[in-house]
TrEMBL record:
<dbReference type="GO" id="GO:0016887">
    <property type="term" value="F:ATP hydrolysis activity"/>
</dbReference>
<feature type="domain" description="AAA+ ATPase">
    <location>
        <begin position="71"/>
        <end position="262"/>
    </location>
</feature>
<feature type="region of interest" description="Disordered">
    <location>
        <begin position="25"/>
        <end position="50"/>
    </location>
</feature>
<dbReference type="InterPro" id="IPR011704">
    <property type="entry name" value="ATPase_dyneun-rel_AAA"/>
</dbReference>
<dbReference type="Pfam" id="PF07728">
    <property type="entry name" value="AAA_5"/>
</dbReference>
<protein>
    <submittedName>
        <fullName>AAA domain (Dynein-related subfamily)</fullName>
    </submittedName>
</protein>
<dbReference type="GO" id="GO:0005524">
    <property type="term" value="F:ATP binding"/>
</dbReference>
<dbReference type="InterPro" id="IPR027417">
    <property type="entry name" value="P-loop_NTPase"/>
</dbReference>
<dbReference type="InterPro" id="IPR003593">
    <property type="entry name" value="AAA+_ATPase"/>
</dbReference>
Length: 336
């Protein structure tokens, strides 16, 4: 007698792409479209636009951004991971029709010089040696120094231009203890000096250097870089450390609170559509309940909703286990 395969087993067969049985198959052909935020087959411009359009700032964030823009001061944005601190910068740049955001991710080893510029002295010396070796009898000219100087994100943001650039300094609280104070003079002066260009002979006043966004080389006169329109600087922090008072008083400070239920529903709709919003009320409520017991990021919610509403939905028992794993608090002990 033929046996009928249980419905749950058939559903498992439909959902599992990787089966773990060691037998090759073409299961990837059934893989649905990726979540919008994990698509890499589009241009960087399209992805930045989508990121900007999906953000929903509250009224306080809008007010503080405007204050920073009017006062030409950096905006220090503090909040839990996943609350949209970084996305705010892309939203501002998109709405104001500015050039792409300049991004400076901070680590414990980041220095002010890395943000301003980098001079590849070894590369220039190597090219000089190659020229001399190719024509030992000739008086080979030194390579153009501008080809070996690249402005960092902060340095590029401080170039003179009629409209400001948006600069995102991400997770400054990860930095060495001195970096916030090191930034003060640059923010106050609106510029900096490149000593390697300042020392050049009088007959070489102008040098064209490279920028962090790899666009056309830009002229720098006598090593001086100074903005005409102060950049819109958005600095993010997860609140893992305190900053010096001298740094804080030069910033406009914004604390981003976790999104409300309505804001979360708006975010879900912006990323996944109206139908996903209508089907995700229970997951949003579970997310909010879990937030009272630990740190959760909005992208964890989006991941859980995508699995529950995408074309190939897991069986209910698997979905509940996956939801439990995906909505695990970020500050929970252990990795599992």
């Amino acid at each position: 007698m033929a046996t009928t395969e249980p419905a749950s087993a058939a559903q498992d067969e439909t959902w599992f792409i990787y089966r773990g049985d060691g037998r090759p198959h073409d299961g990837l052909e059934r893989l649905p479209e990726p979540p919008p935020w994990r698509r890499f087959d589009r241009s960087g411009t399209d992805r930045r636009r989508d990121r900007a359009l999906s953000y929903r700032p509250d009224k306080n964030a809008v007010k503080m951004v405007n204050a920073a823009v009017y006062l030409r001061r950096p905006l220090l944005v503090t909040g839990r991971p996943g609350t949209g601190k970084s996305t705010l910068a892309y939203n501002v740049a998109y709405e104001l029709g500015l050039e792409p955001v300049l991004y400076w991710p901070i680590t414990s080893k980041s220095t002010l010089e890395q943000g301003l510029y980098r001079y590849d002295a070894i590369g220039r010396l190597h090219e000089t040696s190659l020229r001399q070796a190719a024509a030992p009898a000739a008086d080979a000219a030194a390579p153009d120094i501008g080809r070996f100087i690249r402005l960092g994100p902060l340095g590029t943001a401080l170039l003179p231009r009629p409209r400001p650039r948006v600069l995102l300094i991400d997770e400054l609280d990860k930095s060495d203890i001195d970096l916030p104070n090191d930034l003060l003079n640059v923010f106050e002066e609106g510029g900096f000096t490149i000593p390697e260009l300042d020392r050049l002979p009088e007959e070489q006043p102008m040098v064209h250097v490279m920028t962090s966004d790899e666009r056309a080389r830009v002229p720098v006169e006598r090593g001086q870089v100074r903005c005409t329109a102060f950049p819109i600087v958005i600095i993010t922090s997860n609140g893992e450390r305190e900053f010096p008072p001298a740094f804080l008083r030069r910033c406009i400070r914004l604390m981003i609170e976790p999104p409300t239920p309505e804001q979360l529903a708006d975010i879900v709709e912006a990323h996944l559509g109206r139908q996903a919003r209508e089907r995700s009320g229970d997951i949003i409520q579970e997310f909010l309940d879990r937030q009272t017991r630990g740190d959760l990021a909005t992208d964890q919610l989006l991941n859980a909703i995508y699995l529950a509403t995408s074309g190939a939905r897991p069986p209910q028992s698997d979905l509940e286990e996956l939801r439990e794993a995906i909505l695990r608090p970020l500050d929970a002990a252990g990795s599992g």
